[in-house]
Amino acid sequence: MASAASHCRSVIFAKRNILYNIAVRQSRLLFSTNDATSDGQRKPSQRIKSQNNSPRTDHLSWEERLADVVTPLWRLSYEEQLEVKRKHQQRILSQLAGHLTGDPQGSPVRGKLGFPVLPVLPSPVRDGYRNKSTFSVNRGADGNPKTVGFYVGTGRKGNIVCVNGDHLLNMPEKHKLVARCYQDFLRLSPLEPCLLFHAGGHWREVTARTNAEGHTMAIVYFHPQGLTREEVAAHKAELVEYFTLGPGSVCQLDSLYFQESGMTRCSHEESPYQLLHGQPHIYEEVLGYKFRISADAFFQVNRAAAEVLYTTVRHLCFPTPEDGGGTTTKPGGTLLDVCCGTGAIGITVSPRVDRIIGVELIEQAVEDARHNAALNKVLNCEFVAGKAEVVLPAVMSQLSAAGGGPLAAVVNPARAGLHHRVVRALRNQPAIRRLVYVSCKPDGEAMRNFRELCCAPDPRKKLWGDAFSPSLAVPVDMFPHTPHCEVVLLFERSCSRRTRAADGAITTRFGGIL
């Protein structure tokens, strides 16, 4: 009996090691490609390029293959997932350290960190955390072209299979329900799906957005091809009837949008989102503030982890050390919020500062930011629409002329990082002593930004200002079951006694992790 039990334990242990190694291999492959699943500021990956050296998956079910693509760490315990992410962030930041110490290759082996890196701050919610999911349409494993889900395979190899995502750990049930109902609608519709633009077809992806209260927005994307306006209107009416009176009414949609376009991706300005049913917005609450969510507005996909992220950013931008009486003091000054989106960071930081200036490219996001500030009765925020590299020099001149208290900056760009002219404007503004960089992909273009912020003055690149130095890194797990997380990097030019005291208080706020 004892021998049998021991054998059973050995088999279980060996099987767990195999699964662990598979998950780690999957995560390493994803870490090495730009096509990995992400999402802070982007749609969830729908197709991920197969790697030539990836382990064979023929023995796995389609559901397992999809889970390995979208949530490659799903086989690991959450503690093991955090450890995988911690090691990856250490490698990335060691590469930065290598660049700063003169290693031209930025070797992660030779680079020794000269600043502390906290352990990955965990997500309070680990399953079903996504508040936005985009589902593709393509041929399923059974050959049906009207299958709604996520891609496995690549177009180049011609082996794309669309697999239903009902089993994915990061998807909430409401999103899965919307996808199932949309698939049912497509199979009832006389129109074909648009798999390739040049091949015809009409129905494309569907996006589901939800908030903590369960309010749901669906956005259907449609290629008109050669249909007349009257024909398109008839099919829109069928879509509305299905989701309001037909089987799709189980989704209880608060908003149903329709975007008609011949492009793969386009903004509201290029092709307006048409509200077919319900309310134009849903709302989400973060750290006691309420935010309006439009059809194309960026919002962190994990609300609970966003609270951890924004709290971290708030403490790093403007630490509040205790004064002699045991109470915290307000730092004051100005926060420059670059790539501000709908204003979430600025609004949550607003009680600590005198003034917030947000800069954002997308007009609709700026409208949402202004609305959110008014909705929350935040009076010290102003938001400017335009390319940051165009708007920022004028904003900097205005701030220089006004003078005033301390000036800090926070940047939260997309995966492409900051335009070099934005980095130049930040670097050449001597009043900015503290800069917080939030990155969803620090080993991508953001690394170039880090180097330009921290290199010696370089007249050829018009980088005249004093160099920044990294002083603290805080990874935050926004995407459980995937290899990705957000990294909050604090850069400073000088560190006053008061600032050092404030940074000491951060240790306590983060639970003594540092």
From TrEMBL:
<feature type="active site" description="Nucleophile">
    <location>
        <position position="440"/>
    </location>
</feature>
<dbReference type="GO" id="GO:0030697">
    <property type="term" value="F:tRNA (uracil(54)-C5)-methyltransferase activity, S-adenosyl methionine-dependent"/>
</dbReference>
<dbReference type="InterPro" id="IPR025823">
    <property type="entry name" value="TRM2B_chor"/>
</dbReference>
<dbReference type="Pfam" id="PF05958">
    <property type="entry name" value="tRNA_U5-meth_tr"/>
</dbReference>
<dbReference type="InterPro" id="IPR045850">
    <property type="entry name" value="TRM2_met"/>
</dbReference>
<feature type="binding site">
    <location>
        <position position="360"/>
    </location>
    <ligand>
        <name>S-adenosyl-L-methionine</name>
    </ligand>
</feature>
<dbReference type="GO" id="GO:0006396">
    <property type="term" value="P:RNA processing"/>
</dbReference>
<dbReference type="InterPro" id="IPR010280">
    <property type="entry name" value="U5_MeTrfase_fam"/>
</dbReference>
<keyword id="KW-0808">Transferase</keyword>
<keyword id="KW-0489">Methyltransferase</keyword>
<feature type="binding site">
    <location>
        <position position="300"/>
    </location>
    <ligand>
        <name>S-adenosyl-L-methionine</name>
    </ligand>
</feature>
<feature type="region of interest" description="Disordered">
    <location>
        <begin position="35"/>
        <end position="59"/>
    </location>
</feature>
<comment type="similarity">
    <text>Belongs to the class I-like SAM-binding methyltransferase superfamily. RNA M5U methyltransferase family.</text>
</comment>
<dbReference type="GO" id="GO:0003723">
    <property type="term" value="F:RNA binding"/>
</dbReference>
<dbReference type="GO" id="GO:0032259">
    <property type="term" value="P:methylation"/>
</dbReference>
<dbReference type="InterPro" id="IPR029063">
    <property type="entry name" value="SAM-dependent_MTases_sf"/>
</dbReference>
<feature type="binding site">
    <location>
        <position position="412"/>
    </location>
    <ligand>
        <name>S-adenosyl-L-methionine</name>
    </ligand>
</feature>
<keyword id="KW-0949">S-adenosyl-L-methionine</keyword>
<protein>
    <recommendedName>
        <fullName>tRNA (uracil(54)-C(5))-methyltransferase</fullName>
        <ecNumber>2.1.1.35</ecNumber>
    </recommendedName>
</protein>
